[in-house]
Amino acid sequence: MRPILLNGHTRSLTKIKYNREGDLLFSVSKDHTPTVWYSHNGERLGTYEGHNGTCWDIDVNGSTTRVLTGSGDNTCRLWEALTGKELHVFETRSAVRSVAFAFGDEEAIFVTDATMGNKSTIHFIKIAENPQEQQGPYKTIIVNDGESKFSIARWGYLNKTIVAGHDDGTISIYDAETGKLLRKAKDHTSTIQDLQFSTDLSYFITASKDTNSFIYDYDTLKILKRYPTERPVNSAAISPLKEHIILGGGQDAMSVTTTSVTAGKFEVRFFHKIFQEEIGRVKGHFGPINTLAFHPSGKSFASGGEDGYIRIHHLDPDYFTFKYDEEE
Amino acid sequence: MPATDKEFAKPSWGDDVDDFEQDTEKDEDGIFTVVEEKVNEDGKKVKVTRKIKKKLVKEAVSHAVAERKKLKKFGASKNDPSGPQEDTTNISEEIILKLSSNNKEGIKVEEPKEKATPSNIVCRYCKGDHWTIKCPYKNTMLPERNKMSESRESMASSVSNEDAKPGKYIPPNLRNRMGSGRGEGEKPQYEEENTIRITNISEDTTDRDLNELIRRFGPTQRVFLKRDKGFAFVTFVKREDAERALNTLNGYGYDSLILHVEWSNRNRN
Lengths: 328, 269
Fold this sequence. Notes:
heterodimer; A: mainly beta; Methylamine Dehydrogenase, Chain H; 1 helix; 28 strands; B: alpha+beta; Alpha-Beta Plaits; 4-stranded antiparallel beta sheet; 8 helices; RRM_dom (chain B); protein biosynthesis (chain B); translation initiation factor activity (chain B); eIF3_g (chain B); eIF3g_N (chain B)
């Protein structure tokens, strides 16, 4: 295959996400400008101008009408997805680390960092039909005393819960209605960098700086599968089509300049989801991979790296015919 | 938008191919042949023939997706014409994703790098971890070595053990041979004599493919495949099996290449 290289960003990528149909790819990087691309040919559709700091997370709603971005400039912004118009700015007291639309597009959350005496908080907002009537957060979940800050938060199925990853590797599930802590698991020993659900939302995969990636059962928070590696894992995604997962990561960004490309383990690694064995690698980035996303069809995937590039890989036909030994 | 004939008649400056001819032909398979004449960097006029096949791939998409294909660009792309722009979108070089059930694949990737480390360098003279050319015993060992190879030849023609005098230095690589060469009937320490070397193997061959190919000749002790170099060593349990494999597979067409099979280096003489 010949990946499509997107070099619209001038700094390292922080998050990429496909919309529900997968025709658009949304990306944020440390360069302040969230961008949207056509995923089939890599054409840049537009950019969202307004942020004054590193953008950490982006999400698009189910109908691809609204985009939410969280940034280090202490704002979370709501945009019109297809015109780039800024609809609302949510001012916060610290950096916004993670954003997520609820299923049904009526609500959303954003997570603020613990800096300058503020506690790490999950803020709930209702998305107003008319942008002029947009209100600020109507409720919050504040991290408990003695617990480490949130690094990522996602909605559980039917918007009943919030699944949050912490800086110390804890995964906790909160009741979205009452904000009560329901379940908690501490298996990772370092920051949860990424958390992506399976298509049926019954399990999710985590990526942690402690070099491991786990698949957790949503209902019990038990580890179903483990994928140990040698380098920090920055992102993990579950294929919606095959029994595969992909991991991206590599050596810490700060030590990249002293590492050769081959020693840094900067490949996207394919693992068999069930047998937990590596089945292939995709080379390409010149630094750690920060974020990965599978196209909703499972026929292509995209990776965003510390090198500032996004690479869209449309998988070759022989990928789909490949069978693992035990599957034959 | 209605376009007049006039607009079509005037080509864009970008399409202008001044001075040089350009021929386009289309054959029955839909392959375009473009013949172009241009001046290369050395100032020479060259003819460039390119064959292009255009393939229209139709894809059914949902209504919402189809609607979004017609969107106006915004932000930094506001003034871009439709289609991918070179400054933001490029095609990278070919990348191969080879999926394999054998998870050692990942470890293999690092092999070339390790080769360069000094620990893997072996001197041909003294077996030290330096290049042969830098061997400190180069001058003292050289005549010895020549003598040794002479004696090896004589040993091959007539099995004699006269030069295996006690106290005489024997290079490590010959020590085994001397031992096993003494009696024909004696079983060698390793099953080296049942080893065949297969060369000219296609790079796409996996361990599994090779095993399938070899299996029918009989039980094997060891199968070693060096894929990027295109060779393999196969040690059979029985000499007869190895012989049969050698006779059958030598010259056998396998994945567009013709296999070359011989006895492994060690026991060729």
